[in-house]
Amino acid sequence: MGRPSTMSKAVARSPAPRKAAAEIDFGPLAGWIGFHLRMAQIASFQNFGRHARDIDLSPGRFAALTVIGRNPGISQTALSKSIGSDKSTLTPAIGSLVKRNLVRRTRTEQDRRTYRLTLTPAGEKMLRDLTDCARRHEDDLDAIVGPRERAQFLRTLRKIAEELG
What we know:
- By secondary structure, this protein is an alpha+beta fold.
- Helices cover 58% and strands 12% of the residues.
């Protein structure tokens, strides 16, 4: 399964009133890449959220706005595949973006079941604002990963996504 680890315990803080830190035994999770990828993703989303707190849009929706903005007229299916979101998750997210007047969804003439997505002017402004937040978030990540390790780290993450996705 996973590699053995000498770090099978980690310190965690209780969400209850501030009690003394308790040791949690994570067992094999402590040495599993998948567990740490998930924990890193959660921490990354939380940090992005702090940067974008006044904007009120999640990192996943930021990804959707970015891809739509860079690919006007993209279909919902192509968007779903490009950002790794399944239809049951993407459809309500797009509905929310449409309701907030950030995205325009239009049916195609060739296939009335297919929608094309474009940003509205409000969506373009939201994307600019969120991109500024994302740049600050990336600066935080760069400070952790380091400029020399960044390229290799990105290659490794892409390889994981490509080979397992």
